[in-house]
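seq:
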Amino acid sequence: MSDESDPDPCDDCQEPVQNALARTIRLTVDRSQIDSQRLCPECFADWIDRYDSEMKPTADAESTSSEIIVD
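struct:
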């Protein structure tokens, strides 16, 4: 168990990070948690940038027509 004098490390860079500054990213699929990461502010910003660049539609994806199928 950690307290404020002994902060837990960031899951990415392993540097100690206080709870007030930490950000937690949770990946869930169909309401089941697949992954959880506790990140420092710098690693969180890097994660957001990486997510944005990887999830941005490409020109190929924009040119194809897409349908939304609802069960």
